[in-house]
Specification:
The structure is a homodimer. Chain A is an alpha/beta fold. Helix content of chain A is 47%, strand content 9%. Chains A, B: It is an enzyme of class 2 (transferase).
Chain lengths: 341, 341
C-alpha cells in the first residue's frame, strides 16, 4: 500500500492557466475552481473526466447498542438494507437522480439475508462486540475487514467513489474514533445520531467515556479502529485507502464516513489529497471532525441521514467542475475583451 | 397583478406528515425537507413536480459605466451575449448539464445584434443613462420594462424559472438599489464586481453616494428602480412578479438578481413565498441583502459570476427535494421499525 501525494507544481500552473482563461471574472467560480484543480492533480492530467461514479454503502451492526445508545432498534440496520435493495431509501433516490451506481455491501449485519440480487456479501461477523466491555473486533478481524474493503475498491471501474454507511449504533463508534484520533473531548464528539434526546446523548457520552478509560492502551490507528470501530467502518477505511492508491476521487459523506477517513488518514496521510468532502452534517461533531482534517465541505444542508446521501447530492458539483474546465470558451476563443482596470 | 401568499395550514400539515413518514430519521434531510414543503405550498398540492425548468438571462448596459466603476469595458456585455449564443459561457455549461432550458433576452444592450437565433429581442434602449447625472430610466421606460418582463414570464411553459443577468456595471446599479431599499450604508453594499481593486471599490462607493444625494427624492420602489436600476433588472423584476402570480417556483441567483427581487418584494411582499435562493454570492453585499430578505440560500460556493449560474447549480437540489417526497418508501411500506426511544 502506497499513496502518492498529488503535488505537481507544473501541472497545477497549467490547470490554473486553463481555469483563468475561461470567459469569467478571475476566481468567480469559487470552490468549483479549486475542485477542478484538485481533480486535475488527482488524475494527473489537464484533460479531466469523471467516469462511472459509484457509491459504496457499507452496512454492519454494533455490539455497543446493548448499552441503549441509539434511538432506533438494531433491526433497523437489516431492514434498511432491505429498503436499499427495494430501492426505497433516500440514497436510492439521489443516486438514481444523479446517475450514480449504488453498491450495497453487507460487512457484518446481524441478520441472514441469504443470497440476494444487489447485495454484496462480505459479512465477517453478525456485528461487532460491545466495546463497553471488550474490543469491538480483534486486530485480525479488523485487518480482514480492511483487506476486504481494499479488494472491493480494486474491482471498481469508475474513477469517482463515494462512501456511505448504515449501522444502528455507528455514530457512537464514530464519536469514540473521533475522540481517540483527534483528542477532542467526548462531549464534543457525541451527537443525537438518529434522534436521541438530550438525556440520551449524555448517556451515550458516558458510555464512550467509560469505554475510553477501559481501553486506554489503544492509541495506534489499527488498535483504535479494532477497539471502537465497526465492520462497515473498517471495510470502508480499507476501500478508501485502495481507491486513493488507484488515484480515484474519494467522495466523503458525513460523520461516520469521515471517522473512517480519520483512521485511514492516520495510516496514510496522503489520502487527503484524494478526498472531496461532500457536506457538513448536522450531527454535532462533524464540523469539528472536518476542521481537524482541514476539510472544506461542498454542501451545508443540515443533512444527518448517512447512507452516502451527501455524496450523491454533491456529485453534480463535481460534474460542474469538470464541465466548466472542459466546455467553457476562453477569452481568446470567444473574442471577449479582458479586464481593463 | 395579485400574488397570493402560499400559507395553507392543512396542506402544510399533510406535507409534513408525508415527509416525516419517509424511511429516515425525523428531520434528517434538513434543508431539502423545508424545500419539499415550500414547493408543495407553492404548487398547492401534495403531488409536487418540476416541469421544464428554465433560466432567463437578461442582458443590458448601464450608463453609469462612464464613471469608471467596472473592471471590464462595456463591450463585454454584448461579447458575453455572443458567448451565450455560441454556448461557450458558464451558464451554458451548467444549464446543459442540469437539463435546464436557457433563454437569453436583450433588454437593452448597447449593440445591434440583428435578428439572431436563440436571442429574444426585447431591447428598449441602447443601455440606461448615467445615474451619476440623471435618472437611469424614465418612469415610463421602467414600467415598459416591467411589463415586458411580465409578458415573457406569461409565455413560460415550465413551473420553475431561474433568473440570471449580464450587464457590465450592474453591480453598481444593484448596490444603489440595495442601499435605497434596505437602508444599509453604501459602503456595505458595494463590492468588487467583476474584479475591482480596493481603490476601485472606494470610487464605486463614492459614485453611488453622490448619486444617492442627487436623487434623494426617489424613495418609492418604482422610482428607485427607474433612477438607479437597469433595463435587465427592471425586466427581471417584472418577470419575477408575473411568475409568482402564476405560482411558479422562482430560483434566485446572486447579487444583481436579488436586487431585482428586492424591488419586486417591495411592490408585492408575497412574492417571497415563491422564492428559492440558489446561493450566497461572494460579492460583498449579497449576504446582507439575503439577510434583509430573511433568505437562506441553498449553496455557498464562493461564486460571483452571475449569468444565473447559481440557479443552474442549485437545480439538482430542487429535484432531490421533489424526488425524495415522491419516491422514498415510508416506514410502513418498507416495514422498517420506527424510533424506539
Amino acid at each position: 500500500m502506497s499513496i502518492s501525494p498529488t503535488h505537481n507544481e507544473a501541472l497545477a500552473a497549467q490547470l490554473d492557466r486553463a481555469i483563468n482563461n475561461k470567459t469569467k471574472p478571475l476566481g468567480s467560480l469559487g470552490v468549483l475552481e479549486a475542485l477542478a484543480r484538485q481533480i486535475g492533480l488527482i488524475q494527473n492530467t489537464r484533460d479531466i473526466a469523471l467516469t462511472k461514479p459509484s457509491i459504496l454503502v457499507f452496512a454492519a451492526d454494533h455490539g455497543v447498542v446493548a448499552e441503549g445508545i441509539s434511538a432506533y432498534p438494531q433491526d433497523v440496520t437489516w431492514q434498511m438494507v432491505e429498503n436499499f435493495l427495494a430501492r426505497g431509501a433516500a440514497i436510492n433516490v439521489f443516486a438514481t437522480q444523479n446517475h450514480c451506481e449504488l453498491r450495497v455491501i453487507d460487512a457484518g449485519v446481524n441478520h441472514d439475508f441469504g443470497p440476494r440480487d444487489g447485495l454484496t456479501d462480505r459479512k465477517l461477523a453478525h456485528g461487532t462486540r460491545n466495546f463497553a466491555n471488550e474490543p469491538a473486533m480483534s486486530r485480525d478481524l479488523c485487518q480482514t475487514a480492511l483487506a476486504a474493503g481494499m479488494a472491493l475498491a480494486s474491482e471498481l471501474e469508475g474513477n469517482v467513489v463515494g462512501f456511505g454507511e448504515m449501522g444502528i449504533g455507528n455514530t457512537t463508534a464514530a464519536a469514540a474514533l473521533m475522540h481517540k484520533l483527534t483528542g477532542i473531548p467526548v462531549a464534543q464528539c457525541v451527537g443525537a445520531g438518529t434522534g436521541l434526546s438530550a438525556d440520551g446523548i449524555l448517556h451515550k457520552q458516558r458510555v464512550i467515556e467509560a469505554a475510553v478509560d477501559r481501553h486506554a492502551h489503544a492509541t495506534e490507528a489499527l488498535d483504535v479502529l479494532a477497539t471502537f470501530g465497526g465492520l462497515e467502518i473498517a471495510m470502508m477505511a480499507g476501500a478508501m485507502l485502495k481507491a486513493a492508491e488507484l488515484r480515484k476521487i474519494l467522495l466523503i459523506d458525513g460523520f461516520i464516513v469521515t471517522s473512517a477517513l480519520l483512521v485511514a488518514a492516520r495510516m496514510h496521510p496522503a489520502i487527503l489529497d484524494y478526498c472531496v468532502f461532500a457536506h457538513c452534517s448536522d450531527e454535532n461533531g462533524h464540523k469539528q471532525m472536518l476542521d481537524a482534517l482541514g476539510a472544506k465541505p461542498l454542501l451545508n444542508l443540515g443533512l444527518r441521514l448517512g447512507e452516502g446521501t451527501g455524496c450523491a447530492l454533491a456529485l453534480p458539483l463535481l460534474h460542474a467542475a469538470v464541465n466548466f474546465l472542459n466546455q467553457m470558451a476562453t477569452f481568446e476563443s470567444a473574442q471577449v475583451s479582458e479586464k481593463s482596470e
